[in-house]
Amino acid sequence: MMMKESKWLDQDDGLNRLSEHQSRRETTYLGYREVSMDEKARYVLRHFNKVARRYDLMNTLLSFGIHHLWKHTAVKMLELNPGDRVLDVCGGTGDLALLAHRVVGPGGQVIVYDINRSMIDIGRHKVNGGASGKHIRFVIGDAEHISFADKSFAAAMVGFGIRNVPRMDQGFKEMYRILKPGGKIMCLEFSKPTAPLFRQLYDIYSFHVMPLLGGVIVGSRKAYMHLVESIRMFVLPGELTAMLEQVGFSQVTTRNLTNGIAVIHTAVKT
Ligand SMILES: C[S@@+](CC[C@H](N)C(=O)[O-])C[C@H]1O[C@@H](n2cnc3c(N)ncnc32)[C@H](O)[C@@H]1O
Fold first, then answer.
1. CATH of 11-269, one of 3.40.50.1100, 3.40.50.150, 1.10.340.30, 3.30.70.20
2. By alpha-carbon position, which residue is closest to atom 1 of ligand 1?
3. Ligand 1 contact via 211 beta carbon (within 6 Å)
4. Cα 239 to the chain's mean position, in Å?
5. What is the pLDDT of residues 32-72, one digit of tens each?
Protein backbone atom coordinates (compact mmCIF):
# COMPACT_ATOMS: atom_id res chain seq x y z
CA MET A 1 0.00 0.00 0.00
CA MET A 2 1.28 3.50 -0.88
CA MET A 3 1.89 5.71 2.11
CA LYS A 4 0.01 9.02 1.99
CA GLU A 5 2.50 11.86 1.62
CA SER A 6 3.84 13.37 4.82
CA LYS A 7 3.94 17.15 4.55
CA TRP A 8 5.90 18.40 7.56
CA LEU A 9 6.31 22.17 7.53
CA ASP A 10 9.68 23.79 7.86
CA GLN A 11 10.20 26.87 9.97
CA ASP A 12 9.69 29.32 7.08
CA ASP A 13 6.53 27.62 5.84
CA GLY A 14 5.11 27.88 9.28
CA LEU A 15 5.96 31.55 9.70
CA ASN A 16 4.27 32.37 6.38
CA ARG A 17 1.27 30.32 7.32
CA LEU A 18 1.11 32.02 10.70
CA SER A 19 0.75 35.48 9.15
CA GLU A 20 -1.63 34.09 6.52
CA HIS A 21 -3.70 32.54 9.29
CA GLN A 22 -3.97 35.92 10.96
CA SER A 23 -4.67 38.03 7.87
CA ARG A 24 -7.12 35.65 6.13
CA ARG A 25 -9.26 34.92 9.12
CA GLU A 26 -12.03 33.29 7.17
CA THR A 27 -10.14 30.05 6.45
CA THR A 28 -8.09 27.54 8.37
CA TYR A 29 -6.75 24.00 7.98
CA LEU A 30 -8.62 20.76 8.48
CA GLY A 31 -5.88 18.19 8.02
CA TYR A 32 -4.29 19.15 4.68
CA ARG A 33 -7.44 20.89 3.43
CA GLU A 34 -8.11 24.61 3.67
CA VAL A 35 -11.67 25.06 4.89
CA SER A 36 -13.94 27.70 6.40
CA MET A 37 -13.78 28.25 10.16
CA ASP A 38 -17.35 26.95 10.48
CA GLU A 39 -16.61 23.76 8.55
CA LYS A 40 -13.69 23.02 10.86
CA ALA A 41 -15.75 23.71 13.99
CA ARG A 42 -18.53 21.38 12.76
CA TYR A 43 -16.02 18.65 11.85
CA VAL A 44 -14.30 18.84 15.25
CA LEU A 45 -17.63 18.53 17.07
CA ARG A 46 -18.63 15.47 15.00
CA HIS A 47 -15.16 13.94 15.39
CA PHE A 48 -15.18 14.06 19.18
CA ASN A 49 -18.79 12.86 19.32
CA LYS A 50 -17.63 9.83 17.39
CA VAL A 51 -14.44 9.10 19.35
CA ALA A 52 -15.50 10.15 22.90
CA ARG A 53 -16.28 6.67 24.22
CA ARG A 54 -12.91 5.28 23.11
CA TYR A 55 -10.87 8.48 23.42
CA ASP A 56 -8.86 7.50 26.52
CA LEU A 57 -8.24 3.98 25.25
CA MET A 58 -7.07 5.24 21.84
CA ASN A 59 -4.68 7.73 23.45
CA THR A 60 -3.13 5.00 25.54
CA LEU A 61 -2.84 2.54 22.65
CA LEU A 62 -1.52 5.02 20.10
CA SER A 63 1.10 6.49 22.44
CA PHE A 64 1.95 3.20 24.22
CA GLY A 65 0.82 4.96 27.41
CA ILE A 66 3.41 7.74 27.03
CA HIS A 67 0.75 10.47 26.92
CA HIS A 68 0.33 10.01 30.69
CA LEU A 69 4.02 10.91 31.22
CA TRP A 70 3.74 13.90 28.87
CA LYS A 71 0.68 15.18 30.75
CA HIS A 72 2.43 14.66 34.08
CA THR A 73 5.45 16.70 32.92
CA ALA A 74 3.19 19.38 31.42
CA VAL A 75 1.23 19.96 34.63
CA LYS A 76 4.46 19.99 36.63
CA MET A 77 5.78 22.77 34.37
CA LEU A 78 2.74 24.88 35.24
CA GLU A 79 4.14 25.11 38.82
CA LEU A 80 0.72 25.22 40.47
CA ASN A 81 0.28 25.99 44.16
CA PRO A 82 -2.22 24.60 46.66
CA GLY A 83 -5.40 26.68 46.53
CA ASP A 84 -4.98 27.76 42.88
CA ARG A 85 -7.96 28.04 40.53
CA VAL A 86 -7.12 26.42 37.19
CA LEU A 87 -8.94 26.31 33.85
CA ASP A 88 -8.40 23.23 31.65
CA VAL A 89 -9.37 24.55 28.21
CA CYS A 90 -10.42 21.86 25.68
CA GLY A 91 -10.13 19.65 28.74
CA GLY A 92 -12.05 16.71 27.26
CA THR A 93 -12.05 13.68 29.54
CA GLY A 94 -10.15 15.54 32.26
CA ASP A 95 -6.69 13.93 32.42
CA LEU A 96 -4.85 17.23 32.94
CA ALA A 97 -7.52 18.40 35.39
CA LEU A 98 -7.04 15.30 37.54
CA LEU A 99 -3.29 15.91 37.68
CA ALA A 100 -3.78 19.61 38.47
CA HIS A 101 -6.24 18.76 41.23
CA ARG A 102 -3.57 16.69 42.98
CA VAL A 103 -1.48 19.86 43.36
CA VAL A 104 -4.11 22.53 44.04
CA GLY A 105 -5.85 20.27 46.58
CA PRO A 106 -9.28 20.68 48.15
CA GLY A 107 -8.68 24.40 48.73
CA GLY A 108 -8.27 24.98 45.00
CA GLN A 109 -10.54 24.47 42.04
CA VAL A 110 -10.05 22.93 38.61
CA ILE A 111 -12.56 23.51 35.83
CA VAL A 112 -12.67 21.38 32.68
CA TYR A 113 -13.92 23.60 29.87
CA ASP A 114 -14.85 21.88 26.60
CA ILE A 115 -17.24 22.38 23.71
CA ASN A 116 -18.22 18.72 23.45
CA ARG A 117 -20.84 17.22 25.76
CA SER A 118 -19.89 13.62 24.94
CA MET A 119 -16.26 14.20 25.97
CA ILE A 120 -17.37 15.99 29.14
CA ASP A 121 -19.78 13.18 30.04
CA ILE A 122 -16.96 10.63 29.83
CA GLY A 123 -14.70 12.90 31.87
CA ARG A 124 -17.33 13.56 34.52
CA HIS A 125 -17.92 9.84 34.92
CA LYS A 126 -14.17 9.19 35.25
CA VAL A 127 -13.62 11.99 37.75
CA ASN A 128 -16.70 11.20 39.85
CA GLY A 129 -15.34 7.72 40.40
CA GLY A 130 -12.42 9.16 42.41
CA ALA A 131 -11.79 11.40 45.40
CA SER A 132 -11.28 14.49 43.19
CA GLY A 133 -14.93 14.33 42.08
CA LYS A 134 -16.37 17.24 43.98
CA HIS A 135 -13.41 19.56 43.35
CA ILE A 136 -13.37 19.32 39.54
CA ARG A 137 -16.15 21.11 37.69
CA PHE A 138 -17.13 20.58 34.07
CA VAL A 139 -18.38 23.45 31.92
CA ILE A 140 -19.44 23.30 28.28
CA GLY A 141 -18.19 26.18 26.18
CA ASP A 142 -16.13 27.44 23.29
CA ALA A 143 -12.42 28.22 23.78
CA GLU A 144 -12.85 31.22 21.47
CA HIS A 145 -15.36 32.79 23.90
CA ILE A 146 -14.52 31.60 27.40
CA SER A 147 -17.47 32.07 29.75
CA PHE A 148 -15.46 33.23 32.77
CA ALA A 149 -14.60 36.67 34.09
CA ASP A 150 -11.38 38.55 33.37
CA LYS A 151 -8.46 37.84 35.73
CA SER A 152 -10.27 35.00 37.52
CA PHE A 153 -7.71 32.13 37.26
CA ALA A 154 -4.17 31.56 38.53
CA ALA A 155 -3.42 29.21 35.63
CA ALA A 156 -4.82 27.97 32.33
CA MET A 157 -3.83 24.89 30.40
CA VAL A 158 -4.69 23.38 27.05
CA GLY A 159 -3.65 19.83 26.13
CA PHE A 160 -3.90 18.58 22.56
CA GLY A 161 -6.77 20.98 22.10
CA ILE A 162 -5.63 24.26 20.55
CA ARG A 163 -4.98 22.50 17.18
CA ASN A 164 -8.74 21.89 17.02
CA VAL A 165 -9.78 25.49 17.68
CA PRO A 166 -10.38 27.26 14.35
CA ARG A 167 -9.21 30.70 15.55
CA MET A 168 -6.27 29.53 17.62
CA ASP A 169 -5.00 33.05 18.40
CA GLN A 170 -8.47 33.95 19.68
CA GLY A 171 -8.29 30.93 22.03
CA PHE A 172 -4.97 32.16 23.43
CA LYS A 173 -6.35 35.72 23.79
CA GLU A 174 -9.22 34.34 25.83
CA MET A 175 -6.84 32.38 28.06
CA TYR A 176 -4.81 35.56 28.55
CA ARG A 177 -7.96 37.49 29.47
CA ILE A 178 -9.14 35.09 32.19
CA LEU A 179 -5.69 34.86 33.83
CA LYS A 180 -4.73 37.06 36.76
CA PRO A 181 -1.59 39.15 36.26
CA GLY A 182 1.32 36.79 36.97
CA GLY A 183 -0.87 33.83 35.95
CA LYS A 184 0.63 31.08 33.86
CA ILE A 185 -0.48 29.26 30.71
CA MET A 186 0.61 25.80 29.60
CA CYS A 187 0.02 24.42 26.12
CA LEU A 188 0.78 20.77 25.35
CA GLU A 189 0.53 19.91 21.67
CA PHE A 190 1.85 17.53 19.05
CA SER A 191 4.76 18.73 16.93
CA LYS A 192 7.44 17.69 14.45
CA PRO A 193 10.05 15.17 15.65
CA THR A 194 13.50 16.72 15.39
CA ALA A 195 15.65 13.77 14.22
CA PRO A 196 15.06 12.96 10.51
CA LEU A 197 15.34 9.18 10.89
CA PHE A 198 13.01 9.12 13.88
CA ARG A 199 10.62 11.37 11.91
CA GLN A 200 10.54 8.86 9.03
CA LEU A 201 9.69 6.01 11.39
CA TYR A 202 7.05 8.15 13.07
CA ASP A 203 5.56 8.95 9.63
CA ILE A 204 5.29 5.26 8.78
CA TYR A 205 3.67 4.56 12.13
CA SER A 206 1.34 7.58 11.79
CA PHE A 207 0.10 6.93 8.25
CA HIS A 208 -0.24 3.16 8.59
CA VAL A 209 -0.87 2.12 12.18
CA MET A 210 -2.86 5.07 13.52
CA PRO A 211 -5.64 5.04 10.88
CA LEU A 212 -5.74 1.25 11.05
CA LEU A 213 -6.34 1.30 14.81
CA GLY A 214 -8.83 4.14 14.33
CA GLY A 215 -10.75 1.95 11.89
CA VAL A 216 -10.74 -1.09 14.16
CA ILE A 217 -11.44 0.57 17.52
CA VAL A 218 -13.46 3.68 16.70
CA GLY A 219 -14.84 2.60 13.33
CA SER A 220 -13.25 5.54 11.48
CA ARG A 221 -9.95 5.33 9.61
CA LYS A 222 -10.60 8.81 8.26
CA ALA A 223 -10.84 10.42 11.69
CA TYR A 224 -7.33 9.26 12.55
CA MET A 225 -5.91 10.13 9.11
CA HIS A 226 -7.19 13.61 9.77
CA LEU A 227 -5.43 13.63 13.15
CA VAL A 228 -2.16 12.60 11.48
CA GLU A 229 -2.49 15.35 8.85
CA SER A 230 -3.51 18.04 11.32
CA ILE A 231 -0.36 17.38 13.37
CA ARG A 232 1.75 17.96 10.25
CA MET A 233 -0.04 21.23 9.43
CA PHE A 234 0.28 22.62 12.96
CA VAL A 235 2.58 25.57 13.66
CA LEU A 236 6.09 24.72 14.89
CA PRO A 237 7.29 25.60 18.41
CA GLY A 238 8.98 28.85 17.32
CA GLU A 239 5.78 30.07 15.71
CA LEU A 240 3.66 29.09 18.68
CA THR A 241 6.07 31.07 20.86
CA ALA A 242 5.64 34.08 18.52
CA MET A 243 1.86 33.73 18.70
CA LEU A 244 1.88 33.64 22.51
CA GLU A 245 4.10 36.73 22.59
CA GLN A 246 1.81 38.55 20.16
CA VAL A 247 -1.11 37.84 22.48
CA GLY A 248 0.87 39.48 25.31
CA PHE A 249 2.45 36.56 27.16
CA SER A 250 6.08 36.74 28.21
CA GLN A 251 8.75 34.40 29.60
CA VAL A 252 7.79 31.72 27.07
CA THR A 253 9.54 28.38 27.64
CA THR A 254 9.38 25.23 25.52
CA ARG A 255 10.19 21.61 26.24
CA ASN A 256 10.39 18.83 23.66
CA LEU A 257 8.95 15.46 24.62
CA THR A 258 9.97 12.18 22.97
CA ASN A 259 12.14 13.81 20.29
CA GLY A 260 9.57 16.54 19.70
CA ILE A 261 6.51 14.33 19.03
CA ALA A 262 4.93 16.63 21.58
CA VAL A 263 6.00 20.03 22.88
CA ILE A 264 5.10 21.91 26.04
CA HIS A 265 4.95 25.71 25.99
CA THR A 266 4.56 27.72 29.16
CA ALA A 267 4.24 31.49 29.45
CA VAL A 268 3.30 34.17 31.94
CA LYS A 269 0.78 37.02 31.84
CA THR A 270 2.67 40.01 33.16
C1 LIG B 1 -7.69 15.90 21.64
S2 LIG B 1 -8.89 16.34 22.83
C3 LIG B 1 -7.91 16.76 24.22
C4 LIG B 1 -8.55 16.40 25.52
C5 LIG B 1 -7.66 16.56 26.75
N6 LIG B 1 -7.19 17.92 26.91
C7 LIG B 1 -6.49 15.62 26.71
O8 LIG B 1 -5.35 16.11 26.75
O9 LIG B 1 -6.68 14.41 26.67
C10 LIG B 1 -9.39 17.91 22.23
C11 LIG B 1 -10.61 18.48 22.95
O12 LIG B 1 -10.80 19.82 22.50
C13 LIG B 1 -12.19 20.07 22.48
N14 LIG B 1 -12.45 21.23 21.63
C15 LIG B 1 -12.28 21.33 20.31
N16 LIG B 1 -12.61 22.56 19.88
C17 LIG B 1 -12.98 23.26 20.98
C18 LIG B 1 -13.41 24.60 21.20
N19 LIG B 1 -13.53 25.47 20.20
N20 LIG B 1 -13.68 24.98 22.46
C21 LIG B 1 -13.56 24.11 23.50
N22 LIG B 1 -13.19 22.83 23.35
C23 LIG B 1 -12.88 22.41 22.10
C24 LIG B 1 -12.77 18.78 21.95
O25 LIG B 1 -14.14 18.66 22.21
C26 LIG B 1 -11.91 17.73 22.67
O27 LIG B 1 -12.49 17.33 23.87
1. 3.40.50.150
2. 160
3. no
4. 16
5. 888 889 999 999 999 999 999 999 999 999 999 999 999 99
